[in-house]
User: What shape does this take?
Amino acid sequence: MQDALIRKLESFEELSDADRAALRAFVPRVRNVSARTDLISQGDTPSDVHLILDGYACRYKMLPDGQRQIMAFFVPGDFCDLNVFILDQMDHSIGTISPCKTVEIPRAAIEEITAHHPQVTRALMWCALVDEAVLREWLVNIGSRQADQRIAHLFCELLQRLEAVGRVTDNSYAFPFTQTDVADTMGLSDVQVSRTLRALRGLNLITLKHRVLTILDVEQLKAYCGFNPNYLHLKNARWSGRRQVPWLSSVQGG
Amino acid sequence: MPRYFFDIHDGRIDRDEDGIECADLQAAVLQAKKAVSSIAAIEVPKDGERQAITVLVTDETGQAVYLAAMTYTGTWLSR
Assistant: This one.
């Protein structure tokens, strides 16, 4: 299972044999978590870093009036908040959307490795930078795009992110999110989400059946919402050759 | 959970064939309130000085149970 982590990090930075040996030295715990379960909750003292191997999760915050805001989606290959272990107390929660297979990496292991392996540290910084870039784009999305473009943008982003880890077939991917999940992510009402899905279907841009989303015309959907994937940094010039390889497909079955 | 349907009129008619599951009528009414105000926020700046947006909520039997409406009137005071 360490290999999954090593491949993930190597997609950002070249690691030495010593780096790899250090990463192999600790034994991460693999957990199967059911859908709609918190990996860590608001108020908890964080101790582990979670890596998603399979399934979808999200970062969210509950407001006193019961309103939920989702700030990030995690797909296979994503760290759920890399630096979270530095915090004394969680200011938000991380919960699963679908059943997930996760890896828990103890705080001590991360601290030990980052103290002695600068390349690993740089790779971890890369992961954190990309997460921040996604968050910036989501802020733009919620603040400046209209409802239908917002949702189309999310569909395009998920397509790119899932494609990078080998989870897209014929422009289709698993979409376990409910309308309420999308509404709570995009700052929209459920009725608007439902209406937008109807409109995108009506334009023959997507179909959504049995929790599988199919993008019928990728180029047109991208044009529709002005999607530019640059913020995902999936084609880092330095490592573009290496990043063509969906690292996750090789670790299926754990 | 019961399913409610939200037909939107904002210059065109958008019939909701899928519906949304809501805990009860109270929750459906809240959805209608959120929807009508958020649709107005998008539609009003687009064009026109007179706009009406309505969301008609019907239950699973087709019975209309709630009507949410917002109107906008803009008046130019100088040209």
Chain B has one helix and five strands. Chain B has a mean pLDDT of 93. Chain B touches chain A at residues 6, 8, 14, 16-20, 31-32, 34-35, 38-39, 42, 55 (CB under 8 Å).
